[in-house]
Structure formats: structure tokens, C-alpha cells
């Protein structure tokens, strides 16, 4: 089975992705991760304004069968949270790289991004 | 130890199933998605490979007495083709396992025309317990000096559950003899493609349907003949929680969470008028009453209850534990089962479940959570 791994973003070994646009980093989980979890039924996310450390736990994604912690690819302030997921957690399954995004962080240190896996490296990890 | 594999492991793999270890077996947990499979069973029909369930045969002049003394229900009530849900308890009345006991046609259990007059029983212990249960039966038979043969045939038989509102039509359309007239907990041999299949109107999803015990060697042709949505253990778990049914090792566990049938809400499996291991202890508990009971609950706040989470009273004192929980695919609400002191067991009682360190409001509900057969 092959999974989408868009090369416009970076990845954590724990399957979160990070996409930087105009200095803000959007975060979600990969196609591989949503497939492993199965039907996502619940997402717990931080509040806007929370300060996250790099690789700190920022929430939980739960499928019918499993619970998985979420980790911040970069440190910084949470500037947006995807409220749609509270009513429609299945968006994580349906569109993990798009509408299933989870939060946006204004990175304290832009170099954090450089420490993450490239798409090629991540693809190798899940192969 | 290598995992045991069901006969159709390869076929399920080709179909794209994901697998999980369960009771020492490598079993399909999900074919398409739990939600899809769950909905198929509630709305139409689905088939589960439950070949990890044990199959033990007991026959001989004292077969009835041996079964009577090792299971909690009244085996003497079973006519040929009947079955009953029962527990296997220890001396203290603690549930070691739950099981279904079938009375097969007389004789060797494979056909009805070579009867030697001895009663024959088949019972189905849970995954991974067949060897210990087999040994238990042998040990007690020897201790009590009973004349009975006990065979562990787990590796000789596959088991499929066909469940859902359309299950009867599907199975009846495939068997050469009609099985639509079977009542709940009735069974008979029916032929599919020339193969004798023990076909029982039983199941563990809260839906109507059949469980078929079929020769391992004919598993593929029977599975293929029963063409419908394949379902894994993931959907089986969400379905049985909605139906308020227990899972061995989770809702009772003789080692980690010893419970009696009365605490577990299955006191109807206990026939105190019969003599069986654990009977005296259970009679005393029945007289005295239980201190804790298994209840169903629904989470009012957002979150998903899971096995092992604390249950607290509204003041925050831990009063119980979640034994099973899920997001109900049918109700789209978080539901669970757990043991609480009887003073908190009334439907409508407000409790809390601690989810990821946060207290979430819950309400005790009557089970099953959904209307079942």
C-alpha cells in the first residue's frame, strides 16, 4: 500500500507534518498515520495562545480502536486551531494534508523546521 | 511463541485486512474500516472469522455430569440442537471464562446416524484458553472418576459468525437444508457445498444471525459461499459493547479483575439448583448481594472512555474502573462498561470518567445501549 507524502512539507518521526506559509507553520498528521489509526472519532487540541515547546505533546487523536499522542514539530505560540475537527474528526481520515489540519504555530525558532525529516526521509521511514 | 493463524490468514491478507494479536492468534482486526464493517452488521449483514475461539468436544456416558459440574448453567435442560450461555467458575465463584455449550446430535458429533446413545457436547471457550480448559476438564474427570472423552478440536474447526438483519436470508440461501426456522440458541448441521456445518442461531453482536463451526479444511469454500462484508475484531468489539456484552480478559479477568457472574450482570447463567465448581460460593453471594456491579455509561462531555480509566463520583473520589469503552459508531456517542459500587449503579446516576487526566461527566445507562434481538 502506498501513501501520499507531499514534498512541500516536513515530517516528524511520530507522523506529524509541518507546512510553513508566511512564517506560520500548519500542523497535521500524515496519510500513513490516519490509515494506521483507522476511523478517527476524537481530537483534543490546545487552545489558541498556548505556548508549545518543540516536540512537546500538544494533544491526542483517537480512532475507534486506538489513542495516539500528538507532538509539536516546532516550538512557539498556537495562533490557530482547527475547530472543524471537534464536530467532524473524520476530516483527519478524509483529507489529512488539507482540511484535516490541526493547528498553526508561530515558530519561536524558524530553524526548528530544518531539523525535521524531508518527504524522502519520511517516505523511507514508513516504507 | 509463534502466533496461531486462522485457516484463512492468507485469504484475509490478500483482501487487505490488518491483523492483530488476540489470545495468541493472529487475527484480522479490520478489513475496510471499523465504521463500514460495524454499519454493515447493524444495517445488513457481515461475516467474522472467529476461528480463534476454542472448540472442545465432550462425550461418553458421564458427559452430561462432567459438563454440569464444570459450567454454571443447567446442561440437563439442553435437548439435542439446543445451546446455552454459561460461565466456567473457580471455587470462589470467580469467572474463569464464558462459553456457549451446544448439545450435538448423539454419537461422535459429526453426524446423527451413527449414534451410540451417549450425549455429546461442544463448547466454545475464548481464544487462547482452549488448552487450559481442556486440561481442566481432563483433571476433574479423572478426579471424579467420570467416564467421558474430552477432545480439543480447536485446530480442526474454523468458526464464522454471520450477523445482521439480512443474515438469516443469506445463510438460509446457501445451506441445502433450511435453517431459517431455527430459534435463538438452536442449532443443527446444515450442508454447504456438501460440507456439514454446525449452524447455530447465536452470535455476539446484538444482531440476529448464525455462528457456523466448519471443518478447517473446508473453511475457504464456506467463507466464500457466505459472500458479504468481511468484518474484523475491531467491529466485533464496538458491536458487542453497544450490545452490553462482555469481553473475556477485559470485562472480567480471573487474574487482574476477578468477578463473579452476579457482579458481571450475567447471573442468568448461574443455575444454583445444580452442583458445579463455585456453586456454593455463588449461592452465598446471591444471598448476600454484590457490592459492585458492571454498568453501562455514556460520556456527556467530549472524550472516549477506554479500558483502565478511572471512574470517579462527582466529588472526584475514584469509585471504579472502565473495563471497555469506545465511540459508538451507531450512536456516535462515547459509551463504556465498568464496575462501580451498587450505590452508583442506578441508570441516571452521574459519574465521571478520567480521560487523559481530565474528569469527563458520564451518566449510567441501561444496557444494551441499542435495541438488539
UniProtKB/TrEMBL annotation, chain A:
Described function:
The glycine cleavage system catalyzes the degradation of glycine. The H protein shuttles the methylamine group of glycine from the P protein to the T protein.
Instruction: Tell me which CDD domains the record gives.
Output: GCS_H
Q: Which NCBIfam families match?
A: gcvH (TIGR00527), PRK01202.1 (NF002270)
Q: Which family does it belong to?
A: Belongs to the GcvH family.
Top-level taxon of the source organism: Archaea
Q: How does it assemble?
A: The glycine cleavage system is composed of four proteins: P, T, L and H.
* Species this chain originates from: Natrinema saccharevitans
Please provide, in alphabetical order, the Gene Ontology terms of the cellular component aspect for this entry: cytoplasm; glycine cleavage complex
Q: N6-lipoyllysine (modified residue): where?
A: 65
Q: Which Pfam families match?
A: GCV_H (PF01597)
What name does UniProt use for this protein? Answer: Probable glycine cleavage system H protein
Give UniProt keywords alphabetically. Answer: Lipoyl
| Ranges of residues in domain Lipoyl-binding | 24-106
Task: List the InterPro entries hit by this protein, alphabetically.
Answer: 2-oxoA_DH_lipoyl-BS, Biotin_lipoyl, GCV_H, GCV_H/Fam206, GCV_H_sub, Single_hybrid_motif
Gene3D superfamilies xrefs: 2.40.50.100
What does the record note about the cofactor?
Answer: Binds 1 lipoyl cofactor covalently.
What this protein needs as a cofactor is:
(R)-lipoate
Query: What biological-process GO terms show up in the record?
Result: glycine decarboxylation via glycine cleavage system; protein lipoylation
Under the heading PROSITE patterns, the entry gives: BIOTINYL_LIPOYL, LIPOYL
From TrEMBL, chain B:
Reactions that this protein is recorded to catalyse = N(6)-[(R)-S(8)-aminomethyldihydrolipoyl]-L-lysyl-[protein] + (6S)-5,6,7,8-tetrahydrofolate = N(6)-[(R)-dihydrolipoyl]-L-lysyl-[protein] + (6R)-5,10-methylene-5,6,7,8-tetrahydrofolate + NH4(+)
What are its E.C. numbers? 2.1.2.10
Name of the protein described by the UniProt record = Probable aminomethyltransferase
Described by its record, this protein's role is as follows: The glycine cleavage system catalyzes the degradation of glycine.
Q: This protein's superkingdom?
A: Archaea
Residues reported in the UniProt entry to bind substrate: 211
GO MF annotation, one: aminomethyltransferase activity
Q: Which residues form the Aminomethyltransferase C-terminal domain?
A: 293-371
Tell me what organism the protein belongs to: Natrinema saccharevitans
Amino acid at each position: 500500500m502506498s501513501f501520499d507524502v507531499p514534498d512541500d512539507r516536513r515530517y516528524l518521526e511520530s507522523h506529524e507534518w509541518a507546512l510553513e506559509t508566511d512564517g506560520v507553520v500548519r500542523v497535521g498528521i500524515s496519510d500513513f498515520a490516519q490509515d494506521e489509526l483507522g476511523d478517527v472519532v476524537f481530537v483534543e487540541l490546545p487552545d489558541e495562545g498556548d505556548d508549545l515547546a518543540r516536540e512537546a505533546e500538544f494533544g491526542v487523536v483517537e480512532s475507534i480502536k486506538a489513542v495516539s499522542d500528538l507532538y509539536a514539530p516546532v516550538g512557539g505560540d498556537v495562533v490557530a486551531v482547527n475547530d472543524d475537527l471537534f464536530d467532524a474528526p473524520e476530516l483527519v481520515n478524509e483529507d489529512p494534508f488539507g482540511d484535516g489540519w490541526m493547528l498553526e504555530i508561530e515558530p519561536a525558532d524558524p530553524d526548528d523546521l530544518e531539523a525535521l525529516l524531508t518527504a524522502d526521509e519520511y517516505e523511507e521511514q514508513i516504507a | 511463541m509463534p502466533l496461531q493463524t486462522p485457516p484463512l490468514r492468507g485469504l484475509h491478507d490478500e483482501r487487505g485486512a490488518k491483523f492483530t494479536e488476540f489470545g495468541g492468534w493472529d487475527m484480522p482486526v479490520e478489513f475496510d474500516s471499523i465504521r463500514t464493517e460495524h454499519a454493515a452488521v447493524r444495517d445488513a449483514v457481515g461475516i467474522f472469522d472467529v476461528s480463534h475461539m476454542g472448540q472442545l468436544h465432550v462425550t461418553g456416558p458421564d458427559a452430561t455430569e462432567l459438563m454440569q459440574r464444570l459450567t454454571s448453567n443447567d446442561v440437563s435442560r439442553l435437548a439435542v440442537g439446543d445451546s446455552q450461555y454459561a460461565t466456567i467458575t473457580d471455587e470462589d465463584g470467580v469467572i474463569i471464562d464464558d462459553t456457549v455449550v451446544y448439545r450435538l446430535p448423539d454419537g461422535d458429533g459429526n453426524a446423527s446416524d451413527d449414534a451410540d446413545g451417549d450425549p455429546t457436547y461442544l463448547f466454545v471457550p475464548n481464544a487462547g484458553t482452549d488448552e487450559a480448559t481442556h486440561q481442566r476438564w481432563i483433571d476433574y474427570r479423572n478426579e471424579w472418576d467420570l467416564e467421558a472423552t474430552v477432545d480439543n478440536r480447536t485446530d480442526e474447526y474454523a468458526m464464522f459468525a454471520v450477523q445482521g438483519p439480512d443474515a438469516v436470508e443469506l445463510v438460509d440461501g446457501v445451506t441445502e437444508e433450511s435453517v431459517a426456522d431455527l430459534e435463538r440458541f438452536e442449532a443443527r448441521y446444515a450442508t454447504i457445498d456438501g460440507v456439514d456445518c454446525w449452524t447455530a442461531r447465536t452470535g455476539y453482536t446484538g444482531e440476529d444471525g448464525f455462528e457456523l463451526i466448519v471443518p478447517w479444511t473446508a473453511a475457504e469454500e464456506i467463507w466464500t459461499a457466505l459472500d458479504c462484508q468481511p468484518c474484523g475484531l475491531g467491529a466485533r468489539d464496538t458491536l458487542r459493547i453497544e450490545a452490553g456484552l462482555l469481553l473475556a480478559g477485559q470485562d472480567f479477568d480471573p487474574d487482574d479483575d476477578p468477578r463473579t457472574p452476579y457482579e458481571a450482570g450475567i447471573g442468568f447463567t448461574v443455575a444454583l439448583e445444580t452442583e458445579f465448581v463455585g456453586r456454593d460460593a455463588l449461592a452465598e453471594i446471591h444471598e448476600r448481594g454484590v457490592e459492585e456491579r458492571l454498568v453501562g455509561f455514556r460520556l456527556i462531555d467530549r472524550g472516549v472512555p477506554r479500558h483502565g480509566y478511572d471512574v470517579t463520583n462527582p466529588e472526584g473520589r475514584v469509585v471504579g474502573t472502565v473495563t471497555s469503552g469506545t465511540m459508538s459508531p451507531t450512536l456516535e456517542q462515547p459509551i463504556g462498561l465498568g464496575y462501580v459500587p451498587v450505590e452508583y449503579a442506578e441508570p441516571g446516576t452521574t459519574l465521571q470518567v478520567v480521560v487523559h487526566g481530565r474528569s469527563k461527566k458520564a451518566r449510567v445507562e441501561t444496557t444494551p445501549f441499542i435495541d438488539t434481538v
